[in-house]
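Re-run with default settings, no changes from the original entry. Doing this only to confirm the output is reproducible before filing.
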Amino acid sequence: MLTAIIDYESGNLHSAEKAFQRMAAEVGAGSVVVTANPEVIAGADRIVLPGDGAFPACAAALRASGAFAAMVEAVEVKARPFLGICVGMQLMAREGLEYAPTAGLGWIDGVVERITPEDGQKVPHMGWNDLVVDQPHPVLDGVETGEHAYFVHSYQMRVDDPAQRVAHVEYGGDATAIVARDTMVGFQFHPEKSAGAGLRMIANFLRWRP
C-alpha cells in the first residue's frame, strides 16, 4: 500500500509528509512517499495533492511536471482515493478565478473565488476556525461540529452542488472547508497543522476504502 504526496514545488511538504507517515504507521496503511515521478503517482494506491500559492501557477506546474496526467489516470481511471489540501482542494474545482480564469480538474462542480470579508475580517483567512459539519463522510469519523482546523487562504470554493460540500466554516459567510465526491475528498485547511482533529482526518483518509 503506497500513498503518494505529489511534489510540484508548491511549498514545503515536510510537515505534511511527517503527519501522513505517522498516521500511516498507526493505522497500518503502508508507506508514504513525496514524489514528482509521474509513474509513481499513477501507480500509487492513494494520492495526496497539497498546494500553497496561486491557483494558475499551481495548475501550470502540475501540467508541466506530468503529475497532472498521472493523477487523472490514478483517480479517474483507477478510482484511487484522492485528497486535495488547500490549493490542492481548490484545483478540484471546475475553474479558479485568481488573477485569470483557469481550468481546474473539474472533479467538484464549483468555482474558486476571492473571499469577501465581513466587518473586521481580514484576507487572507489565517488561523484557527470551527468546522461546521454539513453531512457525514468517512473522513470525518470521530470529528464533530466545533472542532478546530487551521486555515491559510485568500480564495475559497463556491460549490454548486450542496451534496459535494461536507463541511464549512463561518468567514465572509459560509466558506467551504471540505468537499467530496466518489473517491475524492478535499480540505481547504491544513490537516497536518490542525492538531488532533487534523490527524484523525488524515488517519480516516488512509483507512478509507470508497
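The CA atoms of residues 39 and 65 lie 12 Å apart. Residues 2-207 form a domain with the Rossmann fold fold (CATH 3.40.50.880).
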